[in-house]
Each structure stands twice: as structure tokens, then as C-alpha cells.
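Q: Is it fine to ask for two folds in a single conversation?
A: Yes, each is treated on its own. Send the first.
Q: Here.
A: Result:
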Amino acid sequence: LALLEKVSPVVLEDIVPKLEEQPARWNPGGFIVFPLGLAKDNSSLRLHVSPKGLSRAVLDGHFIHNHGWQLASQVLGGTYRDVIYQVQKINAESEPTGGDIFRLYETIRGEDGKDRLVTDGTLVRATPSEKRNVPAGKTHTIEAVTVYHLPTTPSNEFAATLILDSPAFAPSTHVLFARDHQLKERIRKQPSPDDVALAKEQLRAITAI
């Protein structure tokens, strides 16, 4: 977390003015990811931006998921919002009911932003356990593998976070979809120049405050 505090001003002052030069892709959670590099231990630094005014319903929409790595984040601007879920496997033979029942998918990352989604049919119950609203200047963490969460920053709000990931503990991650979900592949699309320009404009407003 101390590293994030040290690096944050550098990102705002040196990276954001040239944001259109950075590689970027939309995350399925509805925010733009700008990779900022790898350290020698394979930890990575990323900038996440949820521009105000852009739809969050990209790709296959919002999704409850976990991470294969430890994640630490500092909020650069706006308010980061998410919900933490308790996820438990259930017995499919019991014919579970209710809107909180999902099918568990493994996400296998491929080249060019392609994710392959694989399931063995496992059903889980996802129960909200904590709602988080993290304001600018504050930090939050997400534990590897065991913690599932859902990004919830709405489209009428701006949020930007600087993320430090540990090296991966697992070869893949998991995501929850409805039981009748049919998508087998997902592509993390590149944002348009207008999307990046809007993200840049809203990021630069942080330094003008």
C-alpha cells in the first residue's frame, strides 16, 4: 500500500497526460484497464477507470468473480464501490431455487483479450456479505482465490483506482453466471478513442482540484 501512495502522483502527472498511448481493454466488470508494467517479481501495476457517462453493461455485463492473485488498490478519484459475496457449493440433485444460485465457470485467459469459459456444472449460492464504498485517497484489498466480489460503481459516477497485483497463485480465475448461461468465449474489447479521451479528461480533473 505504501508503494501505491508513492506511485500515484507519478501516474497522474506522467501517465495520464499520455493516456492514449497506453494499451487498454474493457474489463467485463465495466471499467477500462490500463496495464502499467511488471516488476521483477511479476507483480503488476494497473490503472482502472470507470468513466462517468459510459455504460457499465459491457461484454456479458456485471459478474461476480474472484482473483488468482492478491490485490491492493488505492482510489485516485471518485468512489470505488463493490459488494463482497460468500460463495458456497450446493448439491445440484437437491434442485435448488432462488435468484442467488449461479453456475461456476473457470476463466482461462488467452491472447488478444479472449477468455475461454469452462464449467463442470457446479452450482453455487452467492450471498452478499459486505457492501464497500471506498472514497478517494483510501485503499482496499481483495484476497486471492477465496474472495468473490462484484464491482457496482454506477454509470453516473466516476471512479479511478491504481491497482497492485501480486504474482498469480492460481492458473485461472472463476466467475459466476446464471444457470442457463450459454457464452463459451468472451473478448475483452479495446476501448474506443472517445472512451479513452473521456477517461483522460475525468482523470485530469483530479489533479485540477
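Q: Second one now.
A: Result:
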Amino acid sequence: VSYLYKLSTFTGTAPVGQWPKLRIDRTNSEIYALSGDEIKVFDKNGMEIYQIPLVDDEGQAKEQLFISDAAVKKNGDILYLTQSYDKGKVLSSLVVANFRGEVLSRFELKNFPPDLSGFQAERMLNLDGLLYLANLSEMRVAVIDEEGSFQRAYEIKPLLLKKRNEESSRSRRRNASIPDEDLEMGDFAVDKAGNIVFTIPAAGRKMM
């Protein structure tokens, strides 16, 4: 790990909020910083080149889009992961926008198996035309194509619980005393081979 540069404008350091989500457009070597009310786009040298406001002048979400994450397609279009509410349920959907943030189309998640119906995604990453959607609290990752069709899913919590039971005799393991309800992902990433890397804040551990 080495220091590269500060994210900047022509007048100084660019404020991007306390905990922005950073997404990489590898095709155009650009960085997208998603904070609560805007997306800032930076070039490969960390210079801000564009802003996409997500709220209007009154602080309301534009086009009723409540965006929880974003990704960039190879053609430069932006994918928004959005949340909506229907009869007390949280529904996840995808919105396609151009590089200016103007909405082009919307579509729902589809072809999910019955046990994953109503899947609520909180994070989104893209890799080779596939989108990895994560529900952090349930420790589930669903993989879809760029049109929203289900491809496969990973149930991570059962695997961890099985591993913990197998290691129950080794009581000094740091995650042995974590209650099941506290076992959740802090965040996740996907490497080039498709391996999922995630953190467990309650255990202070990174796993793959």
C-alpha cells in the first residue's frame, strides 16, 4: 500500500463526505465517489472532472431515486442500486443512467429463486459484466447480469456457522463467542477470479 494523491478540484482538496463509496471505471480510468447527495467523478490523477447531483435544490431525491450504491458499465453508463418501499417491504431495483446521471431505463431484479424472493441488496460491485449484490446483515450475495436476471447466490452465514461448529473445540478462536445475530458483513469485495472477500466487524476479521 502506498499513498497516491488527494482527491482534488482546481481550487484545493475535494470534499467527498466522511465515508464515501469508491467505485472504479477501469475502462476510462476514473474514480466514482458516492456520498449521500452526489456522485463525484475523478480522473486517474485524482482531479475532479464531473459532479452528478442526486438531490434537487430542496434536498429531495431526484426522480424518487434512493440510491444505495453505484457501478459503471464498460460503455460508460452508470448503474444505480436503488431502494423503494411497498407495503412495508424494501424492494431493490436497478436504474441505468448516462455519464451525466440522466436516467435511461429502470428494471427490477428478476428470476430469483423462491427462497431469495424480496432480496434486499445494500452493496453492489461489478466484475466482467456481472453484478454482485450483497445483503450485509443476512450475509448473502446474489450475482445477476446487467439486465437484472439472477445467475447464482452465495449463502455465507451457514458456511461460517458450520466452520465455527467444526472448530468449537478451539475455544480461543476470536469468533467463537460471537452470537449468531451479530454475525454479519461489514463490507465486501470481489477479486478478479470471482472470490468474495468480506469483513466481520464483530470479529475484527477479514475472510474469503
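Q: Anything structural to flag on that second result?
A: Two points. The CA atoms of residues 69 and 81 lie 5 Å apart. The chain has a mean pLDDT of 82.
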